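Reopening this one. Same input as before:
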Amino acid sequence: MIPRDAIGFLNGSFYKMGRENMLFYWDGEWLRSSRDVVEVMKGIGRKKFPFDMANS
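Same output, byte for byte:
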């Protein structure tokens, strides 16, 4: 199941954007990510379907 508010799936995690460009990942609840927002957005944007779990 895709968590509510998720924008995509990358490297084994669902991600969402919060206020002020804060990035969160799903681990049963939304937790703040230390990953670079720009890199995650590029990675999700390269995928044909943002929630494709194959080759992520």
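So the earlier flakiness isn't reproducible anymore. For the record, The two ends are 17 Å apart (CA to CA).
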